[in-house]
Amino acid sequence: MINSGRPLILASGSRYRRDLLARLRLPIHAEAPDLDETAAPGESARALVQRLARAKAMALQDKFPGHWLLGSDQAAAAGNRILGKPGSREAALGQLEACSGRTVEFLTAVALVADGQVHEALDCTTVHFRTLTRAEIERYIDAEPALDCAGSFKCEGLGISLFERIDSQDPTGLIGLPLTAVCSLLRAAGAALP
Predict the structure, then answer these.
(1) How confident is the model at residue 150 (pLDDT cuts 50, 70, 90)?
(2) I need a surface site. Which of 27, 57, 60, 72 has the fewest CB within 10 A?
(3) Contact 166, 133 (CB under 8 A)
(4) Is 62 one of the annotated active-site residues of the chain?
(5) Residue 76 · residue 151 · CB < 8 Å
(6) CA 69 centroid distance within chain
(7) CA distance 27 to 105
(8) What is the pTM of this model?
(9) What is the CA radius of gyration of the chain?
(10) Which of 34, 62, 73, 167 is catalytic?
Protein backbone atom coordinates (compact mmCIF):
# COMPACT_ATOMS: atom_id res chain seq x y z
CA MET A 1 0.00 0.00 0.00
CA ILE A 2 0.92 3.65 -0.33
CA ASN A 3 2.68 4.78 2.86
CA SER A 4 0.45 7.83 3.35
CA GLY A 5 -2.55 5.54 3.80
CA ARG A 6 -4.38 7.80 1.35
CA PRO A 7 -5.23 7.29 -2.30
CA LEU A 8 -2.54 7.88 -4.88
CA ILE A 9 -3.44 11.04 -6.81
CA LEU A 10 -3.11 10.69 -10.57
CA ALA A 11 -2.51 14.22 -11.85
CA SER A 12 -4.23 13.60 -15.16
CA GLY A 13 -7.60 13.73 -16.82
CA SER A 14 -6.64 10.90 -19.18
CA ARG A 15 -9.00 7.93 -19.03
CA TYR A 16 -6.24 5.82 -20.60
CA ARG A 17 -3.84 6.58 -17.75
CA ARG A 18 -6.54 6.06 -15.13
CA ASP A 19 -7.45 2.66 -16.62
CA LEU A 20 -3.81 1.60 -16.77
CA LEU A 21 -3.09 2.67 -13.20
CA ALA A 22 -6.17 0.75 -12.01
CA ARG A 23 -4.34 -2.45 -13.03
CA LEU A 24 -2.09 -2.00 -9.99
CA ARG A 25 -5.12 -2.29 -7.67
CA LEU A 26 -4.12 0.72 -5.62
CA PRO A 27 -6.62 3.21 -4.23
CA ILE A 28 -6.43 6.11 -6.69
CA HIS A 29 -8.08 9.44 -7.32
CA ALA A 30 -7.60 11.22 -10.66
CA GLU A 31 -7.67 14.96 -11.11
CA ALA A 32 -6.36 17.01 -14.00
CA PRO A 33 -4.20 19.99 -13.05
CA ASP A 34 -4.73 23.23 -14.95
CA LEU A 35 -1.47 23.67 -16.86
CA ASP A 36 -0.35 25.15 -20.14
CA GLU A 37 1.13 22.19 -22.01
CA THR A 38 2.65 24.19 -24.85
CA ALA A 39 6.24 23.38 -25.72
CA ALA A 40 8.75 26.16 -25.07
CA PRO A 41 10.58 27.46 -28.16
CA GLY A 42 13.25 24.94 -29.10
CA GLU A 43 12.18 22.48 -26.39
CA SER A 44 12.71 18.84 -27.37
CA ALA A 45 9.97 16.24 -26.96
CA ARG A 46 12.04 14.58 -24.22
CA ALA A 47 12.46 17.81 -22.24
CA LEU A 48 8.79 18.71 -22.76
CA VAL A 49 7.35 15.48 -21.37
CA GLN A 50 9.75 15.43 -18.43
CA ARG A 51 8.92 19.04 -17.53
CA LEU A 52 5.16 18.48 -17.84
CA ALA A 53 5.10 15.20 -15.87
CA ARG A 54 6.88 16.91 -12.97
CA ALA A 55 4.74 20.07 -13.22
CA LYS A 56 1.49 18.05 -13.23
CA ALA A 57 2.43 16.15 -10.08
CA MET A 58 3.65 19.25 -8.27
CA ALA A 59 0.64 21.36 -9.30
CA LEU A 60 -1.68 19.42 -6.98
CA GLN A 61 0.50 19.43 -3.84
CA ASP A 62 -1.41 22.23 -2.12
CA LYS A 63 -4.78 20.64 -2.86
CA PHE A 64 -3.71 17.17 -1.66
CA PRO A 65 -1.15 17.66 1.14
CA GLY A 66 0.38 14.43 2.40
CA HIS A 67 -0.74 12.46 -0.67
CA TRP A 68 1.53 10.85 -3.21
CA LEU A 69 1.05 12.52 -6.60
CA LEU A 70 1.77 10.93 -9.96
CA GLY A 71 2.14 13.04 -13.10
CA SER A 72 2.73 11.81 -16.62
CA ASP A 73 3.00 13.25 -20.09
CA GLN A 74 3.54 11.81 -23.54
CA ALA A 75 4.62 13.17 -26.90
CA ALA A 76 5.78 11.67 -30.14
CA ALA A 77 8.88 12.84 -31.97
CA ALA A 78 8.99 12.46 -35.74
CA GLY A 79 12.45 13.85 -36.39
CA ASN A 80 12.42 17.33 -34.86
CA ARG A 81 8.62 17.59 -35.01
CA ILE A 82 6.65 17.05 -31.81
CA LEU A 83 3.35 15.27 -32.31
CA GLY A 84 0.85 15.77 -29.53
CA LYS A 85 -2.88 15.11 -29.43
CA PRO A 86 -4.29 16.12 -32.82
CA GLY A 87 -7.67 17.41 -31.61
CA SER A 88 -9.17 17.44 -35.12
CA ARG A 89 -9.59 15.08 -38.06
CA GLU A 90 -7.45 17.30 -40.28
CA ALA A 91 -4.60 17.38 -37.76
CA ALA A 92 -4.82 13.58 -37.34
CA LEU A 93 -4.57 13.14 -41.11
CA GLY A 94 -1.51 15.38 -41.17
CA GLN A 95 0.16 13.56 -38.29
CA LEU A 96 -0.38 10.10 -39.75
CA GLU A 97 0.79 11.24 -43.19
CA ALA A 98 3.95 12.62 -41.53
CA CYS A 99 4.49 9.26 -39.77
CA SER A 100 3.92 7.12 -42.87
CA GLY A 101 6.99 4.99 -43.64
CA ARG A 102 8.92 6.56 -40.76
CA THR A 103 10.23 5.64 -37.37
CA VAL A 104 8.66 7.68 -34.58
CA GLU A 105 9.73 7.86 -30.92
CA PHE A 106 7.02 7.99 -28.28
CA LEU A 107 8.33 9.47 -25.05
CA THR A 108 6.35 9.02 -21.85
CA ALA A 109 7.61 10.66 -18.68
CA VAL A 110 6.36 9.95 -15.16
CA ALA A 111 7.03 11.85 -11.96
CA LEU A 112 6.03 10.74 -8.48
CA VAL A 113 6.00 13.29 -5.66
CA ALA A 114 6.08 11.32 -2.40
CA ASP A 115 6.97 12.52 1.06
CA GLY A 116 8.72 15.63 -0.26
CA GLN A 117 10.82 13.80 -2.84
CA VAL A 118 10.43 13.65 -6.62
CA HIS A 119 11.09 10.30 -8.34
CA GLU A 120 11.20 10.36 -12.16
CA ALA A 121 11.41 8.00 -15.11
CA LEU A 122 11.23 8.20 -18.90
CA ASP A 123 9.99 5.46 -21.23
CA CYS A 124 10.88 5.50 -24.92
CA THR A 125 8.98 3.36 -27.41
CA THR A 126 9.96 3.30 -31.08
CA VAL A 127 7.16 2.75 -33.58
CA HIS A 128 7.95 1.77 -37.17
CA PHE A 129 5.04 2.87 -39.36
CA ARG A 130 4.16 1.09 -42.58
CA THR A 131 4.00 3.24 -45.69
CA LEU A 132 0.37 4.33 -45.54
CA THR A 133 -1.85 5.53 -48.36
CA ARG A 134 -4.18 8.48 -47.83
CA ALA A 135 -7.13 6.07 -48.18
CA GLU A 136 -5.74 3.78 -45.43
CA ILE A 137 -5.28 6.75 -43.11
CA GLU A 138 -8.80 8.02 -43.78
CA ARG A 139 -10.29 4.56 -43.20
CA TYR A 140 -8.43 4.31 -39.91
CA ILE A 141 -9.53 7.76 -38.70
CA ASP A 142 -13.13 7.04 -39.71
CA ALA A 143 -13.08 3.71 -37.86
CA GLU A 144 -11.20 4.80 -34.73
CA PRO A 145 -10.79 8.55 -34.35
CA ALA A 146 -7.94 8.92 -31.87
CA LEU A 147 -8.06 12.68 -31.60
CA ASP A 148 -7.11 12.59 -27.90
CA CYS A 149 -4.01 10.42 -28.42
CA ALA A 150 -0.47 11.60 -29.15
CA GLY A 151 0.33 10.55 -32.70
CA SER A 152 -3.34 10.09 -33.71
CA PHE A 153 -3.70 6.35 -33.09
CA LYS A 154 -4.58 3.77 -30.43
CA CYS A 155 -2.09 0.90 -30.47
CA GLU A 156 -4.39 -1.08 -28.16
CA GLY A 157 -7.05 -0.93 -30.88
CA LEU A 158 -7.12 -0.81 -34.67
CA GLY A 159 -4.09 1.49 -34.72
CA ILE A 160 -1.85 -1.56 -34.44
CA SER A 161 -2.56 -2.17 -38.15
CA LEU A 162 -0.60 0.98 -39.04
CA PHE A 163 2.77 -0.43 -37.93
CA GLU A 164 5.51 -2.72 -39.16
CA ARG A 165 6.77 -3.19 -35.61
CA ILE A 166 7.08 -1.65 -32.15
CA ASP A 167 10.29 -1.64 -30.10
CA SER A 168 9.49 -1.24 -26.43
CA GLN A 169 10.52 -2.32 -22.96
CA ASP A 170 7.00 -1.64 -21.64
CA PRO A 171 3.96 -1.80 -23.95
CA THR A 172 1.88 0.25 -21.49
CA GLY A 173 4.21 3.20 -22.15
CA LEU A 174 2.84 3.59 -25.65
CA ILE A 175 -0.72 3.64 -24.31
CA GLY A 176 0.21 6.52 -22.01
CA LEU A 177 1.57 5.31 -18.67
CA PRO A 178 4.56 2.95 -18.40
CA LEU A 179 3.49 0.74 -15.52
CA THR A 180 6.89 -0.91 -15.15
CA ALA A 181 8.41 2.51 -14.46
CA VAL A 182 5.49 3.51 -12.21
CA CYS A 183 5.98 0.37 -10.10
CA SER A 184 9.71 1.09 -9.82
CA LEU A 185 9.01 4.67 -8.69
CA LEU A 186 6.43 3.53 -6.16
CA ARG A 187 8.82 0.94 -4.73
CA ALA A 188 11.64 3.51 -4.59
CA ALA A 189 9.33 5.77 -2.58
CA GLY A 190 8.56 2.92 -0.17
CA ALA A 191 5.25 1.52 -1.43
CA ALA A 192 4.56 -2.15 -0.71
CA LEU A 193 3.76 -3.74 -4.07
CA PRO A 194 3.76 -7.42 -5.00
Answers:
(1) confident
(2) 27
(3) no
(4) no
(5) yes
(6) 16
(7) 32
(8) 0.89
(9) 17
(10) 73
